[in-house]
Design brief:
It is a single chain. With 389 residues, the protein is an alpha/beta fold. It folds into 2 domains: 172 residues, 3-Layer(aba) Sandwich (Rossmann fold); 200 residues, Dehydroquinate synthase-like - alpha domain (Dehydroquinate synthase-like, alpha domain, Up-down Bundle), CATH 1.20.1090.10. It is 50% helix and 12% strand. It has a 6-stranded parallel β-sheet, sandwiched between helices. The chain has a 3-stranded mixed β-sheet with strand order 5-8-7. The protein is globular and about 60 Å long.
């Protein structure tokens, strides 16, 4: 089969102490004045000082915006407030430093500097007409992939559902991935962001939009994360584990940006919006039920997924291969103390309107058109039910 492939990435700097190059990179973007957006935990960890030091050395004026919030994903109102600051300050570059939520706010606020309206106007696919203020995006976790993607996730309080802006004009100018910055990441965040990265690669590997380039990166990323997530969770000071997880996460982000996720993410948005559960944790609770349902459409890829996770599947029938994959995923999830079901997540099925969740998830056709299995509202309702088992 012949494919036409569009492959997009920012300029990427990866490696130990690569954060020291942020001043030089900002200068290349023409920065004399930068807005640095971060969070309180990053500030406490001393990471902010490393970034400011490099910017100061490059003689770039810096205004710091420390954000806090009351939900795991930022509400759209947070973006609007940040965009006002960005517009008023007339910054040459906007720098996002932190976990995925901080990075998403940074990308969207930059876009709103040059585009009219509000965040809600741009929910969906390719609705942002212009590039925003140039951005440098620096993750302090290994998992979200936000530094190399065109996506940004926000909570819409009006409908209590997480929504996505997906536009090429959100793609950062520069991504700096320094594994050292993840050393202060607590175990729970290491686990949730790590499984998020795994799903970016594994779900995109099964996507209808997958191609030879994303498949190669996905399988390598899956192999890395399967091997190193446990050690990074068990000992945050294990530099080898942190390095490998940052690399695997970076690869997964590139895969996500170029072939895209589908069912697991679509089903996670209504759950996370209602219960305000962290993105990676919500995905973890839905992953096994979703993969179990779509596996029938991708027998060969499920076998490749098993091998990438280190499973010996020689001589096994497709049904047995699928079981081996799901068992391996279950082990990985539980080994880092994540939920493997919605019940594990603490959600009461008797108090849940599964049908309404399914209706909301089915609206995410931007994602579901990539699913290897065609899904109705009723199908999704069944999967939600299975995810409680």
């Amino acid at each position: 089969m012949f494919q036409n492939i569009l492959f997009q990435t920012p300029t990427i700097l990866f490696g130990i102490d690569s954060i020291q190059q942020i001043g030089e990179q900002a200068r290349k973007l023409g920065a004399g004045k930068a807005l640095l957006i971060s969070g309180p935990q990053v500030q406490k960890a001393g990471v902010l000082d490393k970034v400011k030091s490099s910017l100061d050395a490059a003689k770039i004026k810096v205004e710091v915006n420390i954000q806090d919030r009351d939900t795991p994903e930022p509400a759209v109102e947070v973006v609007e407030a940040t965009a006002k600051i960005a517009k008023k300050g007339k910054f040459d570059v906007i720098i996002g430093l932190g976990g995925g939520s901080i990075l998403d706010v940074s990308k969207m606020a930059a876009a709103l500097v040059t585009n009219p309206g509000t965040t809600r106007d741009y929910f969906g696919r390719e609705k942002v007409p212009k590039r925003g203020t140039p951005t440098i995006i620096v993750p302090t976790t290994a998992g979200t992939g936000a530094e190399v993607t065109k996506h940004a996730i926000f909570l819409d309080r009006e409908i209590n559902v997480k929504k996505v802006v997906a536009s090429s004009n959100l793609l950062p100018n520069v991504a700096i991935v320094d594994p050292v910055l993840t050393m202060t990441c607590p175990p729970s965040v290491t686990a949730s962001s790590g499984i998020d990265a795994y799903i970016h690669s594994a779900e995109a590997f099964l996507s209808k939009n997958a191609n030879a380039m994303t498949d190669a990166l996905a399988l390598e990323s899956i192999a890395i994360i399967s091997k190193w997530l446990g050690p990074a969770f068990a000992d945050g000071q294990n530099m080898e584990a942190r390095y490998q997880m940052s690399l695997g996460s970076l690869m997964a982000g590139v895969v996500l940006n170029n072939s895209g996720t589908s069912l697991v993410h679509a089903m996670a948005y209504p759950v996370g919006g209602e219960h305000h559960t962290p993105h990676g944790v919500t995905l973890s609770a839905l992953l096994i039920a979703c993969f179990d349902y779509v596996a029938v459409a991708k027998a060969e890829k499920m076998a490749a997924l098993a091998r990438a996770m280190g499973e010996n599947i020689d001589g096994l029938a497709p049904r047995e291969v699928n079981e081996r994959v799901l068992d391996a995923i279950h082990y990985m999830i539980k080994s880092v103390e994540l939920p493997a079901s919605l019940t594990d997540l603490g959600i009461d099925r008797a108090k849940t309107d599964i049908h309404q969740w399914a209706v909301e998830a089915h609206k995410e056709q931007r994602l579901l058109t990539r699913s290897p299995r065609t899904l109705s509202v009723e199908d999704i309702e069944v999967i939600y039910g299975n995810a409680f088992d």
